[in-house]
Task: structure prediction
Amino acid sequence: MSKRVVVVGGGFGGLLAARGLGGGHFDVTLVDRDNYFLFQPLAYQVATGALSSVEVAAPLRQVLRRHKQTHVVLGEVTGFDLASRKVVVEHLPNGEERRELEYDLLVAAGGSRYSYFGHDDWAHHAPELKSLDGALLIRDRILSAFEAAEVEPDPAKREAFLTFVVVGAGPTGVEMAGQIAELSREVLSNEYRTADTKTARVLLLEALPRVLTTYSTRLSASAERQLVSLGVTPRLSTPVVDIGDGFVEVEPQGRARERIATHTVVWAAGVQASPLAGLLAQQAGLEVDRAGRVEVEPDLTLPGHPEVFALGDMVTVRGQTLPGIAPVAMQQGRHVARSIRTGERTPFHYRNKGELATIGRRRAVGVVAGVPVTGFVAWLLWLGVHITYLVGFQNRVLVLTRWAFAYLLHGRGARVIRRR
Amino acid sequence: MSKRVVVVGGGFGGLLAARGLGGGHFDVTLVDRDNYFLFQPLAYQVATGALSSVEVAAPLRQVLRRHKQTHVVLGEVTGFDLASRKVVVEHLPNGEERRELEYDLLVAAGGSRYSYFGHDDWAHHAPELKSLDGALLIRDRILSAFEAAEVEPDPAKREAFLTFVVVGAGPTGVEMAGQIAELSREVLSNEYRTADTKTARVLLLEALPRVLTTYSTRLSASAERQLVSLGVTPRLSTPVVDIGDGFVEVEPQGRARERIATHTVVWAAGVQASPLAGLLAQQAGLEVDRAGRVEVEPDLTLPGHPEVFALGDMVTVRGQTLPGIAPVAMQQGRHVARSIRTGERTPFHYRNKGELATIGRRRAVGVVAGVPVTGFVAWLLWLGVHITYLVGFQNRVLVLTRWAFAYLLHGRGARVIRRR
Result:
């Protein structure tokens, strides 16, 4: 009988692990809450109407359709039983409340989410950008804010509607702020009659003293200049202390608290591992770190459990410091598939091919093969990499088409506000 | 001062009226609940994952961006005051509860919706296909039913999950049933491991004795044959008498009541005019017909109110019998714009260029320039017409791309199930 492999999570890591096992002699089951793989690095483009939601989402079954030994199960993984080798799945689509899946080998790839630093009530006012739901909610809010500004007679209130706040100046926050600025200055400026969308303020709040802190100070400075040239106001060393209905409160270093009137806050800060990391750690008698991650062996197995692999944003690898980005999860997914296929446990080594963050049309920063790049060249590289790694040929064609229109005509076609 | 024209409704009729007035000396305000024009004839393709929601939705502001005298206001029209020439708008995006818009000329184009024959509780079990929200809800349900069948061990329950019911065999119902059959037989058949999607039943329920009753009996018969060849089971003379959780009850003519076990019911029957028709009628001291429509003069003005035009699915035109289809509303929209521009009131004449309904790949029926067409030729004509009338060049390119993929690779890329 073929060995049963259960893969939990259909993100970059889980999907590549499942793909890597598909041709072999394994009975693979991939479990995910969603029926699609989300190309998360482009979720922010959905939030600004540049791409449609389905263009960054590939149905998992379609991606895995040629792997006849691979099953996809829609459901939420809520527990593990490492002793009896079972995964607990809840909320199955047929109405079943709970089912246990037995495995010989387990691959846990639950990913991460944004955390609100203990202020979960902020989530309501400041949706996050890790999920498609979050991206669509942000799109609704951004577009509705412009609509509100258009019909609002009071200038102060109109200014609040035209104030957009992005919390967190990592790659996602930087890209998001740049997109909102482009939207207000270029795309929408000839579509409104009363509101002057060019006067919109886009504030990028960051608790640390620079943007893109994982990059070099030189690249951070370049990114900051490019943001400013687009119309974004980066506010550094400016932690958020409160978010409520119609406002964000900040406490800039060495200065008094300040209240910003706004109706649109995007959250892109404080990454936290999936709760699955904690569940695994508990079962294995381990601790999680402050970000909720569990530490795995260099070969990506759970300590004491050579039959359990864990990878991606929900783990740290012993002896290595890795960034929480898609290429790491992808390489880990492939590594795990290879380990399972060959039966050998070898240490994982990350090949750092580089990292890129775009800021807007013809603007980006990054490091490719160790060389820092900025501006137009970085932007072209960013384009190429994202098109290459998008899943599905159809989505590549559609996304390229949308980007061509956006580039040539300053259009953003995917601008639907869902009904309240 | 320019004359103020308020256009209520941004569908085919309202949008073409607003467009036709844009270049003139009018101060035009278009009011709609949604910020987009929905290309309703293709909404069913969103419901089956063939197209993405934004590909059939064009932002109203984008369509009207060059018309500097045209304002778009997002909000719900809830009343008219014909005596003082005001339109009442509620739920504005800035939080304003109510606002009155004054007009010199009014164009009312509220369209229609499906009615549940007085059984509004059925709506919960059988979403309709007139809105984008409805289409996305149907997509969620259809795709979830296949997911449920895949994990359901009980064969009887699995059969219920693989039973799809479409109510109403007008063009939308026929197209929808054909798409579900294609989805289950061609697109999904190699993606599921446990459920055999090819065994899915697609029932098309119709109270009348034939499909597409507005077409000739010969075309109806052709459409029925094409549906059967695709795998659809048309059940004619079979009115629905009850819909509940997990079932549809029908009472076929001359036979006993029958209960069909299903979790996916699509509603495409019983068109009812927008409530705006009733509000207008009330103000003008008129009655509405059984479908809730108000009768307008041959020049499309409201009797006794030469300053009020009404058009599209919410009206009947005195002395004319017109089908409730997009070309009628479009021609009426253009006619009204011309009447307003010239100041002349001339009777509206519908130029019937034809009508087409598609059933699936290379399958369609219709009448073009008076000539009945079926099969591949009809399908090619259908394609051409729909691409031509889609709003926005970008959407045309994207839709053509999706259709090419669907045709060549049997793919349906837009298959996201939203989170419950």
